[in-house]
Amino acid sequence: MPRRVEGRSMTGRYYEEFEVGETIEHARRRTVSEADNQRFCDMTMNQQPLHLDADFAGETQFGERLVNGLYTLSLAVGVSIPETTDGTIVANLSYDNVEHPNPVFHGDTIRARSTVTDKRETSDGERGVVTMHVEAFKLVEDGDDVLVCEFDRTALSEKRPDGDE
Question: How far from 3 is each of 50, 74, 84, CA to CA, in Å?
Fold first, then answer.
């Protein structure tokens, strides 16, 4: 349920609202376009021909251009924000154990889920550190969705303000 804070709606969770072991299926999905991949490569100055050159990529084991793996990771974080840290985050502290077990191609639709794996208060007790294992999948019509990226995301989270229930 969205809350209003300083005139804006937020949907993220405070530290106290995360439960270790819970899995959050994220509602947002995104179909990755050629333009998404091109823009991301341009913005990050990554001119790897496997991402951008159809002739080059066509001669590889994949047979076509791959979506930049860092875009896939960023997309997984982005689609997870509404149900996790929208309006309640202080900072992302780390992204660890990143793996890309399967490729993403133009036209693939990506969904994500996060599982809370750890949480602890900061040493001063004023905030909390939450670690989530994030998995991104490409949707498959006939069968199980395919895991395309997974990683651990650690965020510094605000605690619920005094008197806010």
Answer: 43, 25, 13
CA dist 126 and 87 (Å) reads 16
Angle at the Cα of 111 (from 105 to 115), degrees rounded to 5? 130
pLDDT in tens, the chain (165 residues): 555 555 556 689 999 999 999 999 999 999 999 999 999 999 999 999 999 999 999 999 999 999 999 999 999 999 999 999 999 999 999 999 999 999 999 999 999 999 999 999 999 999 999 999 999 999 998 879 999 999 999 999 999 987 555
E strand map for the chain: 3-5, 8-10, 23-25, 30-31, 89-99, 109-121, 127-138, 146-158
pTM, rounded to two decimals = 0.90
d(CA 19, CA 116): 7
Question: Sign of dihedral through CA atoms 70, 75, 78, 84?
Answer: negative
Residues 98, 50, 33, 24: what is their CA dihedral angle, to the nearest 10 degrees? -10
Decide: helix, strand or coil at residue 79.
helix
